Amino acid sequence: MVFGRAAGDKMVEEVKKDANHKPLPADACDMTLARLNRLDTQTEGETVKDVGNDLRLAMQTHCGVFRFPDLLHAGVAEIDKVAERAKNTVIKDKSQVFNTARVEALELDNLVEVALATMHAAEARKESRGAHCREDFSERDDVNWLTHSLYYREGHKLAYKPVRLKPQTVPSFEPKPRVY
Amino acid sequence: MKFSIYRFNPDVDKKPYMQDYDVVLEDSDQMLLDALLRIKDLDDSLSLR
Questions:
Q1: Which chain A residues contact residue B9 at CB under 8 A?
Q2: What is the number of H-type helices and E-type strands within chain A?
Q3: How far does B14 lie from chain A, in Å, by closest CA?
Q4: pLDDT of A9-26, one tens digit each?
Q5: Which of A94, A105, A109 is nearest to A40 (CA)?
Q6: What span, in angstroms and rounded, lies between the C-alpha atoms of B12 and A69?
Q7: In which element (H, E) is residue A151 found?
Q8: Against a cut of 0.90, is the pTM above it?
Q9: How high is the mean pLDDT of chain A?
Q10: Residue B16: which residues within 8 A CB-CB, separation 6 or more?
């Protein structure tokens, strides 16, 4: 608790130094409250467990370590379907104390966001990199794909951001394929 | 298999009580945790960690 307080105080101090933060919109809490409210009022729908299992299955089947173009393509449609279903989950327990059913439902919503970003970005990335291996693009492609993928929920838009190759305090490490 | 679980919800209960659950276990359910998760499928108000 002592360290938590000190860390909190330090964060407030640091944040106040930097005036570049955008102001929060007045309705910043609405989305959070809407998520809680949906779970509290929803009386029918699918169980969190069923939707969660299908999310895991879709990711395992379509977006594993070894990746195939047709599977990735089908996976995008599959995970979009799961994302729709996650909007209709129901919990029977509405209590306000130690309610792990609600926590699990909220966690599923968060997992859906990560899964959508992973699947859409993976399908678009036409190369193999790190541990991930695409059957149709087996080589690492630093000319076209030395970029971070940025995923936006609206319209499943993807954008790309260059990788910073010049660290501020240590000499830079030249990117190159790992060969063994 | 039948489980008797000591339960208490401070929102509605004056005092704790025993609740019985009949749950069908699979061969793969080896640990008590497996059984508890099956019970949570039946009644998601059972919180555990």
A1: 95, 97
A2: 6, 6
A3: 15
A4: 999 998 888 777 788 888
A5: A94
A6: 54
A7: strand A147-152
A8: no
A9: 93
A10: B6, B7, B8
